[in-house]
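Review the following:
>
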Amino acid sequence: MANKPPSYRPVSGFVLPRFAGIATFMRLPHVPLEDLADIGEVDIGLIGVPWDGGTTNRAGARHGPRQMRDLSTLMRNVHHVLGIAPFEIANCADIGDTPSNPIDLNESIALIEAFYAEVHKAGVIPLSAGGDHLITLPIMRAIAKHRPVGMVHFDAHTDTNDRYFGEHKLTHGTPFRRAIEEGLLDPRRTVQIGIRGSLYTAKDMDWGREQGIRVITIEEYFDLGVEAVIAEARRVVGDEPTYISFDVDGLDPVYAPGTGTPEIGGYSTHEAQRMLRGLRGVNLVGADVVEVSPPFDPSGSTALVGATLMYEILCLLAETVAKR
């Protein structure tokens, strides 16, 4: 169990109102990246990646981390179902945002990878808020360089396309094809949940399945039910290191309208929470929640969904830390 000093506890809503103070993820202390190694106490780092240079249509996810930070102030201390008190069993901190260049995709990816390489070097598990889904590729380049990870991937899309507009091989629709090609992601330990929507061609999903990815379409999801899907996900990833990537467009857009590529007919927020809780005990090495796009939902409801899913995952990560 982590030996966590009191300074790593969130600011209490009984001490400072939730609408006051400088917004950090979950009201946690801010620990700059350059201080991580010297401090040597942070177990889980909450990180914003305000970049959507991989978006091919409706941009706006670059604004996701800021709004998710704001809405995450609504999170409290104890998970009401799992009984996990994450801030009591792990040292959690807001490490801030990665640098990026909004007009240079390649430079941004390099900057993001370098940021996460320092996080990984410090022994910190990253929990990230995107940003578009391409951010997962540089994160995996940093944390899975020496051993591939498995993945539980919640999404309406497989994100295993090859290229866009000719030779463009880096978009938010290609990260997992690149990750598999680079040996960062083990396709035989990857499960994708909620896949749906019209396709460019009838063969769009063939490549991933040929590599060994377990693709659970939304139709199969509803046929199987939540518990069976959880069991299948756990079977696929096994006991080896696993990453969670949650694209909010996996949810039905009635629950998450603020996203760039919505697809009707998805699962509910409660079903998503149940699936995440069902991953308790999986060997997790990191996670992200991506594609929250505030311009498409000024109410902040989608950002609240994203922040709450981050809290669900944080509880799982904290328990992983405590069991080390």
Notes: The first strand starts at residue 44 and ends at 49. The chain has a mean pLDDT of 95. Residues 31-322 form a domain with the Arginase; Chain A fold (CATH 3.40.800.10). Residues 132 and 188 are 24 Å apart (CA to CA).
